[in-house]
Amino acid sequence: MSNLNEEADPGPTLATNRTMDMVVSLLFIALGSVFMVDSWRIGIGWIEGSGPASGFFPFYISLFMALASLVNLQRAFVHAEPGGEESFVGRDSFKRVLFLLGPTLIYVLAIQYLGIYVSSAIFITAFMIASRAHIQQAVLVGIGTSVALFLMFEVWFLVPLPKGPLEALIGY
Amino acid sequence: MEDVVSLLHGFSIALTPYNIVLMVIGIVLGVIIGVLPGLGGANGVAILLPLTFSMSPTSAIIMLSCIYWGALFGGAITSILFNIPGEPWSVATTFDGHPMAQQGRADQALTAAFTSSFVGALVAVIMITFLAPLIAKFALRFGPAEFFAVFFLTFASFIGTSRGSPFKAVASMCLGFALGAVGLDQMTGSLRLTFGSQELLAGFDFLIAVIGLFGIAEMMSSVESGLQFRGKHATIRLSVVLHTWKSLLRYWATSIRSCIIGCWMGVTPGGATPASFMSYALAKRFSKNGNNFGKGEIEGVVAPETAAHAAGTSALLPMLTLGIPGSPTAAVLLGGLMIWGLQPGPMLFIEQKEFVWGLIASMYLGNVVGLIIVLTCVPLFAAILRVPFSIIVPVILVICAVGAYTVNNNMFDIWLMLGFGIMGYVLQKLDYPLAPLVLAIVLGDKAEEGFRQALLGSQGSLTVFWSNWLVGSIMTLGLLLLFSPLITWAISKIRTGLGGHPAAAID
Fold first, then answer.
1. Three-point CA angle B446, B452, B454, nearest 5°
2. Cα(B216)–Cα(B42) distance, integer angstroms
3. Which of A5, A133, A153 sits opposite B228 (nearest CB)?
4. Looking at the domain assignment, is residue B503 inside a domain?
5. Which domain does B114 fall in, by range?
6. If exposure means fewest CB atoms within 10 Å of the residue's CB, which of A121, B35, B126, B309 is most exposed?
7. Burial class (CB in 10 A: 0-12, 13-18, 19+), A43
8. Which chain A residues are Cβ-neighbours of B390 within 8 angstroms?
9. Tens digit of pLDDT for each residue in B258-291?
10. Which of B409, B429, B507 minimises the CB distance to A88?
11. Residue A35's closest chain B neighbor by CA?
């Protein structure tokens, strides 16, 4: 009874912090290199009358980013980072994250076709039902949130949000 | 004397019924934001920012800054009752706050936390009242080199005070600068780092980054650990408040120390989180009851809360006077200033007197209003966390998506927000600090502009950054901070090399 926050079981390790550290460092280096090339293209030198060229600042910033990431990569490689062998994410935890991310991606995609109000109502309702909430409650919260957002943005603050066929039907 | 007159005038602006209502709304929203996981001061203010576009700048900043105070107060509620820090700066509050709640002294812990927050904020506001005009007057003489030096110091102190690997702080910060550079180059009008993409022409909006990095990433971590909220109940009776206030007087030394730490860390962009930890650690060392810390010592609640609130408030000092925010939330407020058409920086004190002093007056009032609201409404706010997680998660995601869209009325921004969310989730888990990333996106353009103009003036010679004692000492201080991790590392190497205590060489 004392410690009330139960952390769910993360499950077997999918990747260690060390592996992820190396992956992220490599991504940083790759991004830095791409940025450096593009900065080089627009010029990193001195332009008479206007000072350092447009690419000057981004070039050196990207260089520092890549260099720092090289050190991070090396530190991960020689096990210098504390907690490197600890789990970055377990299988069950990762499933929970995907359970959140998957529907969210579909939701954002749906906004483009159905508008934000209808998509939000469906997203909230579906997410709640999938999380074993009561169906009536889920429908109520989903539609309630969307109606509240609609009143707030379209009616009171007059900030237009993406709308779809349903809103067109009622004249918005 | 002139300042006191200005301040009184500010009170007359802030004390209109309309602004008081906005203050109350702001505080209540802020506490809710502070209590809810996934919504914090920074992204909460970012999401609500577009709603203020139609208000006058003074009313808008009063409401938004009150959201910030509310969020600062709200973090303590979850820490004490649920052992879940709603905000990073209230992590240290859980150490003693939650044990007190378990012993049935939640009401005392909450009263102590709110009161200390109030004291910390009040001291910081008083400091702002008297220091801000002086600093602004001083900064009027700043040229591009001086401004760049201050930016440099800001970012160097992030690296110097980072708790994790300084190289990760550098990588994270440079990523911010690089993302900030994407789009149109303000000085020459040429496009850079857009790779032919239409969407990237306008660059990355830092408000989107804030909503993603702090909001979406936070939801992902909460879901990942499968947190269940089951907390202690609490209501606060007046007798307990009065009794606790009396007992708090004994900790005046801790309060003063925490205020100083908080104000210092807030003005230099160390921020509220390290301030709260440092203040807790020092209180533990100096207290007579130091050994009881962690077991439910009221002083262990006073110290971090005072410092966090003092730091959170004084982060607005550099934002107002120099246009350099001391925390991500202050950065969002700064973004708001620019959207409302105000130019942050020293000129603000001359051209926008009403705005500045209205804001400062509202800081006094907002914290008084905040203290009253949180003391009386704790059960209501705690009830929010008893709403099932299956409702909170999708609703907050929807709110984040709406917030991201309204920043520029742009669908692509919602995708960007998701991208920033995934990025923030991964980076946070690997101990990359996110605050320098956000500040670099916000300040990148201005830092670069200062740098390029300074070099243009000096025909490319770097000596311009040491051309007078002011800019020279700021730059040198920045360099010292930048290399301080290296210096401490070298000293510890030399010590272990000379002393020959292998046990002391734990890295």
1. 100
2. 13
3. A5
4. no
5. 2-490
6. B126
7. middle
8. 127-128, 131-133
9. 998 888 888 776 667 778 888 888 888 888 887 8
10. B429
11. B193
